[in-house]
């Protein structure tokens, strides 16, 4: 039996799956935690990756591996291959003003036309501008810029600082893939190329793609690999696939096709679809990302998703099962109680400085059940607004695939059928981002994308209750 492995290095943890090449059957898996925070030392990811690989039985009998990871995070390296400063993650909003500055200088329409996205605090370009302005000494040390999955792939292949890695600090060996590159705001899915003028505008220094002719002050950007293209091998000879951004990895793992819209409830919430044509939304609401198969991945993201449920469950002194039991005893609309869950600011809509708000409280409506239901309704209404935005750029869904740990909560499933106005399908629980990495590993190994089966429950009956979204629309900023 030939084995392939996939990795999901997410915000909260690192997950590894090892699957049979022929059938896609899960053979074993492993997991390790990541530290909390919006600013993290990349070494913590490497430690978690090695721990998760050990927990999954190691790579001795694995033929190929590929690594998907959280998008947008800024990993800056000096000429010796050392990390210059802790990585700023996608959910770090300190670069919100930098995003506004870049839009003022270039224009939203021009950004959307050139790279398919309009800067928000999540994107790498804004973090580089923040670094330029807030930490000029660190900016001056930067010799290469990578994303989390790029850096981990590089380390997995044996590169890094000379005293930590067998192959040393060869920055020209850095690679990425089109899906993750498209989330930087300086790589274009439509043109399949870096926009080096936009990169220089962000960091204040010129950049070049790894492997291109060197120039004195140019910062190295990872070489962009195509779908199924190998990045190289580990020192022990395991083939390493191109990797992907987490949402593109999930799309591969699910086998998402035309007519599928994926709604993912994790640390962040996302709504995305695989489409043939690139998207350029000058409003900045829908990001025109690339996918990991050679197509496009129009996407919206919310900063507030599963942790909304965590917060309200703690407030009510219950676990997630208890939250579900409470919520299911309340009527749709939660007696008029509405939670607008912008606890950590928000990306869609772009309100990085916003806070959460609880509306519609009366003496009669202020009950644990209504508050529990309002938390679930508010989280899902934010994602339903995202579905409307994706529809606005031409996406037409036949079904919604609801994934993430929260999708298995019975109250989330029931309320989703009442919030969304399309059939909701909940695939079997799984690590779909890591599964996407395993698909990439198989693809790189054989030259052919595998067609593994994904199990799913029957679609939930559409049970739309208009009052839920009407109340939410009236309460949100």
For this entry, give a set of tags.
single chain; 477 residues; alpha/beta; seven-stranded mixed sheet; 15 helices; 25 strands; 33% helix; 21% strand; globular
What do these coordinates show?
The protein is 33% helix and 21% strand. With 477 residues, it is of the alpha/beta class. Strand 18 and strand 19 form a beta hairpin. The longest helix has 25 residues. It is globular, with a radius of gyration of 22 Å.
Short description:
The protein is of the alpha/beta class. Helix content is 33%, strand content 21%. Strands 1, 2, 3, 5, 15, 16 and 17 form a seven-stranded mixed β-sheet that branches. It has a six-stranded mixed β-sheet with strand order 20-21-19-18-24-25, sandwiched between helices. The chain has a two-stranded antiparallel ribbon with strand order 4-7.
Radius of gyration: 22 Å
Mean pLDDT: 95
Number of strands: 25
Total helices: the number is: 15
Q: What share of the residues lie within helices?
A: 25-40%
- Strand content is 15-25%
Low-confidence stretches: none
Distance between the termini: 55 Å
- What structural class is derived from the secondary structure elements? alpha/beta
Main sheet properties: 7 strands, mixed
Looking at the structure, what is the overall shape? globular
């Amino acid at each position: 039996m030939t084995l392939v492995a996939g990795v999901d290095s997410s915000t909260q943890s690192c997950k590894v799956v090892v699957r049979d090449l022929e059938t896609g059957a899960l053979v074993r898996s492993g997991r390790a935690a990541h530290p909390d925070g919006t600013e993290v030392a990349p070494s913590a990811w490497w430690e978690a990756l090695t721990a998760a690989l050990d927990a999954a039985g190691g790579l001795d009998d694995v033929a190929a591996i590929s690594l998907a990871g959280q998008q947008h995070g800024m990993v800056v390296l000096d000429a010796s291959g050392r990390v210059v400063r802790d990585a700023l993650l996608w959910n770090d909003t300190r670069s919100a003003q930098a995003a506004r500055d870049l839009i003022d200088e270039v224009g939203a329409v021009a950004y959307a036309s050139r790279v398919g996205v309009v800067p928000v605090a999540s994107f790498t370009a804004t973090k580089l501008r923040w670094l330029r302005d807030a930490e000029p000494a660190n900016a001056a040390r930067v010799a290469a810029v990578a994303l989390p999955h790029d850096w981990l792939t590089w380390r997995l292949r044996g590169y890094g600082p000379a005293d930590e890695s067998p192959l040393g600090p060869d920055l020209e060996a850095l690679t990425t893939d089109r899906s993750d590159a498209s989330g930087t705001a300086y790589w274009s899915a439509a043109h399949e190329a870096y926009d080096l003028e936009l990169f220089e505008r962000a960091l204040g220094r010129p950049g070049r793609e790894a492997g291109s002719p060197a120039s004195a002050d140019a910062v190295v950007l990872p070489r962009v690999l195509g779908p199924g293209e190998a990045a190289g091998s580990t020192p022990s000879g395991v083939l390493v696939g191109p990797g992907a951004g987490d949402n593109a990895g999930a799309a591969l793992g699910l086998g998402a096709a035309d007519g599928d819209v994926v709604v993912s409830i994790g640390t962040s919430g996302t709504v995305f679809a695989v489409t043939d044509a690139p998207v350029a939304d000058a409003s900045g609401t829908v990001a025109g990302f690339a996918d990991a198969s050679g197509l496009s991945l129009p996407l919206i993201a919310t900063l507030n998703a599963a942790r909304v449920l965590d917060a309200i469950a703690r407030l009510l002194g219950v676990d997630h099962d208890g939250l579900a039991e409470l919520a299911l005893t309340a009527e749709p609309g939660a007696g008029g109680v509405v939670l607008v869950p912008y606890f950590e600011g928000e990306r869609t809509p772009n309100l990085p400085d916003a806070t959460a708000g609880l509306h519609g409280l009366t003496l009669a409506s202020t009950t644990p059940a209504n508050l529990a239901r309002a938390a679930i309704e508010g989280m899902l209404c934010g994602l339903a607004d995202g579905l409307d935005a994706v529809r606005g750029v031409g996406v037409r869904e036949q079904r919604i695939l609801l994934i993430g740990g929260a999708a298995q909560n019975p109250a989330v499933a029931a309320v989703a059928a009442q919030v969304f106005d399309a059939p909701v399908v909940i695939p079997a629980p799984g690590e779909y981002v890591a599964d996407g990495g395993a698909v990439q590993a198989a693809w790189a190994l054989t030259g052919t994308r595998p067609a593994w089966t994904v199990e799913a429950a029957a679609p939930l009956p559409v049970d739309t209750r208009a009052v839920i979204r009407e109340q939410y629309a009236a309460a949100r900023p």
